[in-house]
Amino acid sequence: MNLLQTVSFSDRLAVAEENANAVKPLTERHPDISVREAYMIQLKTIERKVEAGASIVGKKIGLTSLAMQKLLGVDQPDYGHLLNRMEVEDGGKVSLGRLIQPKVEAEIAFKLNQDLVGPRVTSTEVLLATEYIQPALEIVDSRIEDWQIKLQDTIADNASSGMYVLGGQPVSVDKVDLSHLGMAFYKNNKLVNTGVGAAALGGPANAIAWLANKLFEFGIYLEAGEIILSGALSAAVQAEAGDVFTARMAHIGEVSVTFTD
Amino acid sequence: MESKTIKKTAVFLIDAENEKREVPRITDEYPDLSVDEAYAIQEELVNIRLGQGYRMVGSKMGLTSHAKKKQMNIDKPIYGYIFDYMVTDANVLHVNELIHPKVEAEIAFILSRDLEGPDVTTEDVLASTEYVVPALEVIDSRFQNFQFTSPDVIADNASSSRVFFGSVMRKPDEMELDLVGVTLSINGELRDLGASAAVLGHPANSVAMLANMLSRQGKKLKAGQIILTGGITGAQLLSLGDIVSAKWDGLGTVEFKVEQ
To answer: What sequence ranges are listed for the domain Fumarylacetoacetase-like C-terminal (chain B) (predicted)?
Structure first.
């Protein structure tokens, strides 16, 4: 894949996002796009958004659960970039007009206070480099029609990132057992599912260590100050107008968001 | 259902348990078996066990989580009873005593006061709870292929079989009882997980529902009883040689090995 093709795929996805209008999977006509090429498309889109004034505030890790990996037939997670304009305040409203086919998932967010440079970062080093954790909701959205994604499609599409909400209280990692931190997820005050930290690659710090090591392949590292969404603790739930989503997490509080037309 | 048939059916299920033999469903022969009749069979079964000298140590709720309801295709919680012979202190499950055991991770409540329905609330339960403890419950339906309808499993004492309790006890106000994260691993592989809200939104709701269900039979929950509130995780089938390990946030670990 040459630079022109990378730019062309990046354009297609950027326009889809801008117009909130989904496109066919890239892999439908180009089944030979590699995972690395898919990341190059993502990085190109992010580079151009940054040139246009956006700033990178962190990363998100996707496909951290066995169930999601099985669904896509893959054996590893993926990642995407969080930009400043994706953040929604806790309890805030999100207009569905900005999104295509959003789903919501509950995750533990990490705020780093040290850089994490691959390729041999361990989960213990992740914990030592973490200023605090807090509960987060990730609103995932796909620019690909009907979520008909293969791994390469979602990676090229910034790992299906949409928006994110940070809530609760910042808590130091030494106050909790991250792998056993329980989560209950509610839609319109009705419990829809539960989860626990271990759902994300056996533990959220494992997921972040994976990310730090993956980024090394692209000459990128996790920087102090970044927010990392460490992976869904339960299945994503589709959002419709009027829906209120709340995640409650043991020891670190709750976070919520409302969808409007 | 005649009382003779009720008695005969209870004996049939006790024999199946004693002889480790899976049997056809009751509803194959009595398709109209009602929930009330099923509880009458269960009561007969309990009385037979008590007559044999076994002691009742508590009760259990079953089918309280969305995962379990879906797994068994039954949408209403049920209850059954736990006897002394089911509580296993050595960390070994003897599989040759059982038919096709499955395991699930739960939170158990030990009551400090009696709880009598019909209007018991979650708050009443928390105020009447001495301790909460972690438990691995082994269920073992006496029915072929672990397949049953709601009346079948009620008659079969809610598939009660064995229980392993953990050694950590907590006062209910020491933790957010509906946000207890749990992982269940077998042979080192993570098999299932969840948080305790999976049990009817809060495990104390399960105890309240039990007290209220019992009140219809003129019964109550008594101080000192242990109540298993229902699986937080789905039930996982066990095999000889398995090493089962579950961990609860704030409530420690329970482990056992499956031997002959």
So the answer is: 86-258
Element (H, E) at A79: strand A78-83
DSSP secondary structure letter of residue A255: E
CB atoms within 10 A of CB B72: 21
A180 contacts A197 by C-beta, under 8 angstroms = yes
Strand-strand pairing, A161-166 and A87-88: parallel
Query: CB count, 10 Å around CB of B105?
Result: 28
A177 in contact with chain B, both atoms CB, cutoff 8 A: yes
Using only C-alpha atoms, what is the Rg of chain A? 17
Domain that holds residue B33: 3-259
What is the per-residue pLDDT across A53-103, written as a single tens digit (0 to 9) for each? 999 999 999 999 988 898 888 988 999 999 999 999 999 999 999 999 999
Contact predicate B253/B247, CB 8 Å: yes
Q: Kindly list the residues from chain B whose CB atom is less than 8 angstroms away from the CB atom of residue A65.
A: none
Instruction: Give the Cα separation of A166 and A91 in Å (integer).
Output: 9
**What domains can you pick out in chain A, each with its CATH number?**
3-260 (3.90.850.10)
Tell me: the pLDDT tens digits for B109-161? 999 999 999 999 999 999 999 999 999 999 999 999 999 999 999 999 999 99
- Number of structural domains in chain B: 1
| B182 touches A: beta carbon within 8 Å | yes
In the beta sheet, which residues pair with residue B237? B102
B193 in contact with A, Cβ within 8 Å: yes
Q: Please give the ipTM for the structure prediction.
A: 0.91
Q: Measuring CA to CA, how many Å separate A229 from each of A28, A80, A104, A166, B28? A: 29, 10, 13, 10, 52
Cα separation of B170 and B155, whole Å?
33
Residues 6 or more apart in contact with residue B130 via CB below 8 angstroms? B110, B111, B112, B171
Find the closest chain B residue to A197 by CA distance. Answer: B181
pLDDT(B67) > 80? no
pTM as predicted: 0.94
